[in-house]
């Protein structure tokens, strides 16, 4: 994993050790080790066997600590486990932002293109959407036209790289999504970042969902993106039927998946192999990359 952001703060095991020991001496005897992750907003470290330390990489992610704490406090009755915020740390040791300690959840992160429990995933999405939701749409729950300009800009940026990529096919998917009726129902509760790495599996079942920093309310289409960033053609229909998506929501979900992929790929293609590989998978599943 390379340096992903120009304003990324340097974080290493020694810094995390000093932060933990200085603010939470009850954990001073627990080992700390970096956790392999494709995440783009936080550095994540394992603290002993039962905890993780999450530290924002940039100032833009600093507010996620409080947002994630609020989001996790509002979840109850989901069919899968979610982490608990065990403690929140303060800036110190030259590190300038709040950081958090979460409970550890066992499980293997899902991987695109591999067997995945489509019905479990649909059950989780339906259960999440059934929770009370109020207030205006949050960033990823806003209407699709709100991201029209950055999506088109990213398509053009990607067109200028050496990626095998069909820009015209991408624009066609995007146009179809924009032409679909927009969400006019009440806001639904959203995770809004259901990337494979945030979905934990055990024995072939979905058992946990992590990284709730972008959770909010709004258009439910955003939480259907695993249909293209995780599932295969064989299981995509099962997921759609089980989640009960109508044609308009499905079209908007395709647009959301496309938008995230084309924005991620030019930005992370040289620094984050996990995210860039997933973006390529999405574009292939949407028919926007040449098939060998």
TrEMBL record:
Keyword Translocase annotated: no
Statement: the UniProt record of this protein carries the keyword Transcription: no
Assigned EC number: 2.7.-.-
EC supergroup of this enzyme: transferase
Recorded GO MF terms: transferase activity
Chain ranges of the Aminoglycoside phosphotransferase domain: 33-255
UniProt keyword annotations, A-Z: Transferase
Superkingdom of this protein's organism: Bacteria
PANTHER family: AMINOGLYCOSIDE PHOSPHOTRANSFERASE-RELATED-RELATED, BIFUNCTIONAL AAC_APH
Name used for this protein in its record: Aminoglycoside phosphotransferase family protein
Organism: Amycolatopsis melonis
């Amino acid at each position: 994993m390379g340096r992903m952001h120009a304003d990324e703060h340097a974080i290493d095991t020694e810094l995390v050790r000093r932060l933990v020991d200085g603010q939470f001496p009850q954990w001073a005897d627990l080992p700390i080790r970096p956790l392999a992750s494709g995440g783009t907003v936080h550095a994540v470290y394992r603290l002993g066997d039962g905890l993780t330390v999450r530290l924002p990489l940039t100032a833009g992610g600093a507010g996620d600590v409080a947002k994630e704490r609020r989001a996790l406090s509002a979840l109850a009755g989901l069919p899968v486990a979610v982490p608990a915020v065990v403690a929140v740390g303060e800036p110190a040791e030259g590190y300038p932002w709040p950081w958090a300690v979460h409970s550890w959840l066992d499980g293997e992160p899902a991987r695109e293109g591999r067997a995945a429990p489509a019905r479990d995933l649909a059950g989780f999405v339906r259960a999440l959407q059934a929770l009370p939701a109020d207030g205006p749409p949050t960033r990823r729950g806003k209407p699709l036209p709100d991201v029209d300009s950055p999506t088109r800009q990213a398509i053009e940026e990607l067109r200028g790289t050496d990626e095998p990529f069909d820009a015209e096919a991408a624009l066609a998917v995007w146009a179809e999504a924009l032409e679909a009726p927009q969400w006019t129902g009440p806001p639904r509760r959203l995770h809004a970042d259901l990337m494979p790495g945030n979905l934990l599996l055990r024995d072939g079942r979905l058992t946990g969902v992590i990284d709730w920093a972008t959770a909010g309310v709004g258009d439910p289409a955003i939480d259907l993106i695993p249909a293209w960033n995780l599932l295969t053609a064989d299981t995509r229909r099962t997921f759609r039927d089980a989640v009960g998506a109508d044609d308009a929501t499905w079209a908007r979900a395709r647009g959301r998946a496309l938008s995230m992929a084309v924005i991620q790929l030019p930005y992370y293609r040289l620094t984050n192999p996990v995210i860039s590989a997933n973006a390529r998978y999405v574009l292939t599943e949407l028919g926007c990359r040449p098939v060998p």
